[in-house]
Amino acid sequence: MKETRTSVPRLKKGDVESNFVSSYLSIKKSRQCLLFISFLFFTTMALAKEIVVSIPSLTEELSEALADEVEITLETFPASGNYLILWLAPEYGLRPSHLRLAQALAKQNIEVWQTDISESLFMPQGLQSSKKHNGAITAALIEYAHQSTGKKIILAGDSYAAITVLRGVNQWQKKQAKDAYLIGAILFSPNLYAYIPALGLAPEYMPVVAATNIPIMIYQATKNGNIGQFDTLLAQLQTNNNPVYSKYLPNVMALFYAEEPTPPIKKQLNLLPLNIKKILPLLQRHELPLNAIPIKTMQSNQRDIDRSLKTYSGKVTPLKIHLNDVYGKAIIKNNYQGKITIVNFWATWCPPCVEEIPSLNRLKVQMTGLPFELISINYAEEKDTVLEFLKKINVEFPVLLDPNGEFAKQWQVITFPSTFIIDPQGKIRYGVNAAIEWDDPKVIEALKSLL
C-alpha cells in the first residue's frame, strides 16, 4: 500500500501570549495522554482484538490516488449475538469512553467493531479529513462485516462522524444489495453542518442529510452546543419519512472525552448498553430501503469560521442578561445603550477560547476611559470547574455562568468562542464565531468607530 501523509496544521498563536495559557493547554494535553495510555493498558487485557482489513480499489476515498488496496485497522469486540455495530471514529479520533462502551455492549452480546478511517489512511485528525470521506470505505466495511459474521449491521458514530455514517449508508445502497442486512444507524450528538454559519444565521446541513432514508436512533446531549438546532436537524433527517428516534442525555455536553468521565457522563455510559440493546430490535422492525437517494452537490463555498469582525445578520436586539457570576453575584443587564458592550461565550475545554483570553484582557486595557464593557459567559460548566480554571488563567473581566447552556441557546450560539459586539444604541453590530486577536489595531479601530 502506498502511504499518503499529510502534516497536521498547528494552531496559530498571537505574537504575545500569556505563559499561563500555554502552560494550561500543555498540562491538559499531557494529562489526556496519560489517561489514554493507562486506559489502553487495561483494555488490551480485555475484550478487544485488532485486525487489519485490505479493501481493494477504493481510491476515490482520497483526493490523491492510492495503490490497489487500502488497509483499514479494526478494533473488534466479539460477542455471540445477532447484531454487529460498526463504529466510526469522529474527527478527534477514538477516546477511552468509546472503548469502554464497546466493551459494555459486547457484554450485552452485541458485537462492536471500531475503526478510525482517517488514521488508517494517514490523514490528520480533524473536521476537514472527516468531510473528505465519501463513504466508499464505510460501504465496503458494512459488506465485509456481514460477510464475515452473518450478523445484522448497525452503523454508529458521534459528532462529525455522522457525515461518514450517512454517506457510507448511501454508498452501500448504491451497490443495490439484495439483502437488507444493514438495519440503521445510531448517532451521538451528531454534527451534520455543511459549515459553521456567521452568528445570527441558521446553519446549512450537508447534502447527505436530505438524501437519508434509513431508520436512525439519536442520543443527544442536552448541553452540547448543537442542542439549539436539534429540532431542525430532526426535521431534516426525516425528509424522506424515515423513522428517527431520539433520546436526550441530560446534564452532559458529550460522552466521549480524553479525560476521565465525570459522574454524569459515567451515569449515561452505564445506562446506554441496555438502552441500545432495546433499540436495535426496534430499528430492525422498520424496512431499510435498498435504493439510494442521489446526494446533491453542495453549492455553498462558505468557510467554517470567521477570523475577523463580521457584520451581524441576525436579530439585532440583544437579550437581557440575568445570570450569576462565578462568585455567586447576580448580574442583571436590561439596557445596553450608552456604551460598547462585548458579550463573549466560551468554555474552559475550548482551546481557542483559552488562547484569546490574554488579548481580551489587553483589549479591556486599550479601551480604558471609554464607554466600554466586556462580559464573558461560560457555557454549561460547573462553578468549581470555572473557579479552578481562574486560579491558573488570569481573566480580567466578569465571568458569568450559563449552567444549563440555555442562555447560549437563546443567542443561537453553536460554536465556541462566539462573541457579539453591541453598539451604544443597543444593537448588535458585529459577530465573531472564532477566536481572534482582540487588541489588533483594526479591531480596536472598528470598535471605536461605533462611538
Notes on the protein architecture:
Helix 2 crosses helix 9. The chain folds into 2 domains: 32-284, Alpha/Beta hydrolase fold, catalytic domain (Rossmann fold), CATH 3.40.50; 310-448, Glutaredoxin. The protein starts with 18 loop residues before the first helix and ends with a helix. The strands form 4 sheets. An 8-stranded mixed beta sheet has the order 1-2-4-3-5-6-9-10, sandwiched between helices. It is elongated, with a radius of gyration of 23 Å. It has 14 helices and 18 strands. With 451 residues, it is α/β, with parallel strands linked by helices. A hairpin with a 5-residue loop joins strand 17 and strand 18 (428-432).
The name CATH uses for the topology of the largest domain is Rossmann fold
Mean pLDDT, all residues: 86
CATH superfamily annotation of the largest domain: Alpha/Beta hydrolase fold, catalytic domain
Strand order of the largest sheet: 1-2-4-3-5-6-9-10
Q: For the record, what CATH class of the largest domain applies?
A: Alpha Beta
DSSP summary, beta strand count: 18
Low-confidence stretches: 1-46, 62-67
Q: Any idea how many domains? A: 2
- Percent in helix: 25-40%
Count, helices = 14
Shape: elongated
